[in-house]
Amino acid sequence: MLLRAVAASVAASVATARGLATAPRGEGRRLLFRQLFEASSCTYTYLLADAATGDAVIIDPVLETVPRDLRLLRELGLTLRYAANTHCHADHVTGSGALRRALGCSSAIGRESGASADLRLGEGDELRFGAFALRVVPTPGHTPGCVTFVLDDASMAFTGDALLVRGCGRTDFQQGCARTLHRSVHERIFSLPEECRVYPGHDYHGHTMSTVGEERRHNPRLTLSADAFVELMGNLQLPRPRLMDVAIPANLRCGIQDEP
């Protein structure tokens, strides 16, 4: 009986190390986490890794900062498993294609984005790295293919442009829909635990993170009714993103600009 138990424990450990299983949540896991910034597009890139195995995932890498990300991965001794995007960006070219070429990791994006990637993600999918996993939660509205990545213990949510700190992404291009975004945030993000930390795709006002509870109470846009939110978003009159004509075509190919 004891030998069978030991064998089962060893098998589970091996499966976890290979990314085939997720270890029990809580004790025994240590997450390595870095929040990185790209100044010209005010984009946050997030690096998460299992400190024990070195398996890592990067969220929303930017092409211009790929050298920084490669250096950091090397310095920390990490193996990048996934370069994931929360959506098809309009304001910068993703670095996921360049990271894939350099390291052999898998690129990933929501399947409703219409973009190419190794993994086209949908409801219920997970990106597993060591004893951790990111759960894929579709949160359309900014674009139809937006997803939020939620850590498996619901302690962290990477919301892309669906939910920013005290704001949200625009809905006036890329098939955006304000009413859909309002519903996505309220039903899929605001339903997470109040203490869940929110890490946005961008920030323009010096914030680094928030919580679900904070945004539920204080977000000046998302505390509005659906009708008031739709009216507000329809009257923003924001300028067109400067790199939109370059970024969207490249990002539809996972950031690859030099291949047909």
Describe this structure in words.
This protein is an alpha/beta fold. Helix content is 27%, strand content 24%. It has helices at residues 2-17, 66-76, 96-103, 178-189, 212-218, 226-234, 244-251; strands spanning 31-38, 43-50, 55-59, 79-84, 106-110, 119-121, 126-129, 132-138, 147-151, 156-160, 197-200, 210-211. Strands 1-2-3-4-5-6 form a 6-stranded mixed β-sheet. Strands 7-8-9-10-11-12 form a 6-stranded mixed β-sheet. The protein is globular. Mean pLDDT is 90; it is low at 1-24.
The profile of the biggest β sheet is: 6 strands, mixed
On the 0 to 100 scale, the average pLDDT is 90
- Pairing-aware structural class of the strands and helices? alpha/beta
Low-confidence stretches: 1-24
- The outline comes out as globular
| Rg, Cα atoms, Å | 19 Å
Question: Keywords, please?
Answer:
7 helices; 6-stranded mixed β-sheet; 12 strands; 24% strand; alpha/beta; 260 residues; disordered N terminus
Topology:
Layout: H1 2-17, E1 31-38, E2 43-50, E3 55-59, H2 66-76, E4 79-84, H3 96-103, E5 106-110, E6 119-121, E7 126-129, E8 132-138, E9 147-151, E10 156-160, H4 178-189, E11 197-200, E12 210-211, H5 212-218, H6 226-234, H7 244-251
Parallel strand pairs: 3-4, 4-5, 5-6, 10-11
Antiparallel strand pairs: 1-2, 2-3, 7-8, 8-9, 9-10, 11-12
Helix pairs in contact: 4-6
Provide a short characterization of the protein structure.
By secondary structure, the chain is of the alpha/beta class.
